[in-house]
Amino acid sequence: MKETHMAVAKKMVRFIEKASWIRKMFEEGARLKEIHGAENVFDFSLGNPNVPPPPEVKARILEILEDPSPGLHGYPPNAGLPEARRAVARSLVRDHGYAFTQDHVIMTCGAGGALNVILKALLDPGDEVLTPSPYFVEYGFYADNHGGALRTVDTLEDFSLDLDAMDRATGPRTKVVLINSPNNPTGQIYPAEDLERLGEMLRRKSKELDRVIYLVSDEPYRKIAYDGVRVPSIFQCYRNSLVATSYSKDLSLPGERIGFIAVHPEAEDPLPLSGALVLANRILGFVNAPVLMQRVVSALQDVCVDAEIYRRKRDRLLTPLKEMGYRCVTPPGAFYLFPRSPLEDELRFTEILKKENILVVPGRGFGKAGHFRISYCVDDDTIDRALPGFRRAAEQVLQSV
């Protein structure tokens, strides 16, 4: 009998083999919950906001649904509804300065959609996307989607940017530098002085290489910052810059897939750039951001969940973990901890935690072995009941040393 060959693309088979550890652990959590009961499994694997959307969200949805006006759910322009783009532009002027208009805004299917649109518009085959590590694992797949390649640069001990290393890594094939602040998985926020230095480096490199290098900032956690820390504006540091973001975290709407791209008003060749972004927003198959959600967020630019709730969860978990001996940088934003593993092989340690029914994500899933990610956007009871298991796991390692 003739042997049949797998129909799936060989590249996708390779990708599946190294697919997201986040999803692997999430699926493992589902299995353990079937065995032990959901209340006895402490799942810190997925960054799924557990704070409900602000009440204004539901009120706005109901208001729209009761509106008898025709065409409310029809196709929008490829860049998005003008009223949504104008609302975003007004908020950008207030938060970043510069003369943003609706022409600098493209509504997208979340931040993931926004990043794919940007990379589709910017990358030629063989171009490189440079990103600090640890990083969100999907970046590599996104770059590959559009003929590019991801190149990573290690960060410093506290997960801040290693600007000298980034300088050395930026070369003739670099087209995009992609940063994520507040960062997933570390919660680190890059300070203004580092972004200023990064902007200076990109201006120098662009001149040396005689090609524009774009700075792209992935910012879905922008409004989830603590302890008085403010997230600096990349627009004030470098003019050939774009922001990709979503309302998944600040309005707790991850499943609604609504976000936008913002282009610096003073970017070089803004009209061809905007045209390429708008076309990519259509031909990638996203076919525009959901219209209902565009109408919702256009009225809620100043609304946000209470980030203090996440700050309290951070401290509720981080303080006792440090007392147990876990080494962890205190994150100023997002809702993740990224401790160093008590064992050099963090896969072994995550298996020890799994035996305590605690699910975390190995750091190698983010390009940083020897660490693991804890997503603390969970119920307080989950945090409290998991702490004895974290303690037993740490003690087990100490006894085995």
Account of the protein in words:
- With 401 residues, the protein is of the alpha/beta class.
- The protein has 2 domains: 10-53 and 305-400, Aspartate Aminotransferase, domain 1; 55-298, Type I PLP-dependent aspartate aminotransferase-like (Major domain) (Aspartate Aminotransferase, domain 2), CATH 3.40.640.
- 42% of the residues lie in helices and 13% in strands.
- It is built from 13 helices and 12 strands.
- It has helices at residues 10-17, 21-36, 55-65, 82-96, 110-122, 138-145, 163-169, 192-209, 270-283, 291-298, 307-324, 346-355, 380-400; strands at residues 42-43, 105-108, 128-133, 149-154, 174-180, 214-218, 241-246, 259-263, 336-337, 358-359, 361-362, 372-375.
- Strands 2-8-7-6-5-3-4 form a 7-stranded mixed sheet, sandwiched between helices.
- Helix 6 (138-145) links the parallel strand 3 (128-133) and strand 4 (149-154).
- Helix 11 (307-324) runs parallel beside helix 13.
- The model has no long low-confidence stretch (mean pLDDT 93).
Which key phrases capture this entry?
single chain; alpha/beta; Aspartate Aminotransferase, domain 2; three-stranded antiparallel β-sheet; 12 strands
CATH topology of the largest domain: Aspartate Aminotransferase, domain 2
- Spatially, the strands of the biggest sheet line up as 2-8-7-6-5-3-4
Domain count, please report it.
Answer: 2
**Shape by Cα distribution:** globular
Distance between the termini: 55 Å
Tally of alpha and pi helices: 13
Number of strands: 12
Say which CATH homologous superfamily of the largest domain is assigned. Type I PLP-dependent aspartate aminotransferase-like (Major domain)
